[in-house]
Amino acid sequence: MTWHTPVLVDAVLEGLLPAERLIDGTLGAGGHSQALLAGGAGALLGLDLDREALAVARERLSPWQERVTLRHGSYEDMRLAARERGWREVDGILLDLGVSSLQLDRAKRGFSLRQDGPLDMRFDPASGVPDAACLVNGSSEEVLADLFRRFGEERHSRRLARMIVRERPFSGSGELARAIERATPRPWRGRIHPATRVFQALRIAVNDELETLQRALPEALSLLRPGGRLVVISFHSLEDRIVKRWLQQEERDCICPPQVPVCACDQRARLRRLRRRPLVADAIERERNPRSRSAKLRVAEKL
After folding, report:
1. Domain boundaries in the chain?
2. Of 298, 193, 279, the residue nearest 239 (C-alpha)
3. What are phi and psi of 19, to 5 degrees?
4. Which residue among 112, 121, 141, 205 is buried most deeply as judged by most CB within 10 Å?
């Protein structure tokens, strides 16, 4: 089987190894976990909401099956999963955020702009949460415009929301992508597909991605041993902004407003960033693996 290529592998290995106990909170097809295990990681706990991805990862990681535990679930529940594994603390945690190449490549999942599939976009199709079709066909113009603006940073959110309400119902991802393309005047189009930001917004809303990330970061820190490391890979500014601001806050000894003369918050720094700026892929990797072009990696160490 041909495996998908994970992004920024060397930086992940440098950030997390050596380690006896690791958590890959967003396992996907298992590319990063494979590299970590091959690089000498002692034991690994992998989590993912996508059962198809777990099946692929299980096969990919079979040479290390005695050192690997895989669980179906969200990375925000990593502390519970670690406890069930018998771990109170770990040496490192990896979060590779967003949609996986495996999900993008399978039309039936509804994430792809270029392949027509059902308008689903759920990381866990069996979860019972409303899919993207429910959002697109059931939300008001105001709600859709707000979603596109907040979660997609789409400049033409109102225009596109108005078009969707006028032309719906939509049932397929390709059908929606083509409608957005038709509604976008050519001078407004950039290098990316006109529907990219709308699809990002729908996916984030369907899977509650940003709230999940905000809940998960403190969980990750609580699980790390002193000296343990957290590596987070993000793919758009909304994710990276959350990670950056959280790291900055946890790195400070005081978060009181500047006008407060004496500290009253009792905040103490709990981590340190190993790099001030995020690591990005070099030109060779960007050419070889297009998904890496927007990737940003941040790494921090627990104090």
Report:
1. 9-96+209-302, 107-207
2. 298
3. -160, 145
4. 121
Third-level CATH fold of 9-96+209-302? Rossmann fold (3.40.50)
Query: How many C-beta neighbours within 10 Å does residue 90 have?
Result: 24
Do the Cβ atoms of 244 and 271 come closer than 8 Å? no
Residues 289-294: contacts with CB under 8 Å, at least 24 apart:
289/5, 289/7, 291/7, 291/101, 291/235, 292/7, 292/8, 294/235, 294/236
- Residue with tokens 């991605």, as numbered in its chain: 209
Distance CA 157, CA 99 (A): 22
How many other CB atoms are found less than 10 A from the CB of residue 109? 23
Asked whether the beta carbons of 160 and 180 are under 8 A apart, the reply is yes
- pLDDT at position 102, please? 86
pLDDT at 1 over 70: no
Q: How confident is the model at residue 2 (pLDDT cuts 50, 70, 90)?
A: low
Give the whole-angstrom CA distance, residue 284 versus residue 5: 14
Single-letter amino acid, residue 195: A
Q: Which of 270, 214, 250 minimizes the C-alpha distance to 97?
A: 214
What end-to-end distance do the CA atoms of the chain give, in Å?
A: 41
Give the pLDDT mean for 251-256.
Answer: 84
Count of Cβ atoms closer than 10 Å to residue 260 Cβ: 10
What global pTM score does this model have? 0.94
The pair phi, psi for residue 27, each rounded to 5°, is -60, -45
